[in-house]
Amino acid sequence: MNAKKYYMISIIILILQLFAALWIGHFLKQDAKIPVHWNIHNQIDGYTNKTQGIFLFWGINVALFLLMAFFRKFSPVYQRDRENSNNAIPLLTMGLIFFFALIHLYSLMLAKNPNWASNVQVLFLLMGFLFMFIGNVMPKLSRNYFAGVKTPWTYYSDEIWRKTSRVSGYCFFLLGFVFIVGGAFNITGTLMTTMLVTMLVITVFVPTVYSFLLYLKVKKGNESNQ
After folding, report:
1. I want to staple 211 with a disulfide (CB 3.0 to 4.6 A). Which of 113, 153, 166, 188 is the partner?
2. Which of 6, 18, 152 is nearest to 68 (CA)?
3. 3 state DSSP class of 34
4. pLDDT tens sequence across 132-173
């Protein structure tokens, strides 16, 4: 599937998101409280009003689409590696728009059905599938200044970027798996917090350290060849 089709699907998702949000909003009371934030214990700890709940997060999704769709116009790296960027960035855009739309509509449904609040592990499932999707896209991203593992060492060479992106993809996939396990089995409390914090640390630090070690190896090899 080419870039235009991915972007077209993203636009369709945005249109459907808006109509679905308006439809759900029609059944909400004017003083309805829309959940907008969950803490690490998967508990709702932030709300907004009906109008913002319907339009604000749809607007954020539109802004995300515009940012992702038009960044390439200003990216010299994209022009250099147009084919790879053309495949990965539009796919990533479509996936992010889709999952954020689902999370937005889920928050509206929670406002419509407050008794669902005891069943908010659905959010963990959505986040889990989102991270697993990102994990699958990460290895497809070519070196750029917009998306991916951006450390001083991944920019040293395409080889370091490619290998680090593959490791980072595994980490995101495992992070998503932890979210899904937590949501499917309704794991809460200290156990879930420990699992998430551990995987978040791994997802951040393992690719960073790995890229540095690769940099030392590649640099040493280049120096020995001179």
Report:
1. 153
2. 6
3. strand
4. 999 999 888 887 777 788 888 888 888 888 999 999 999 999
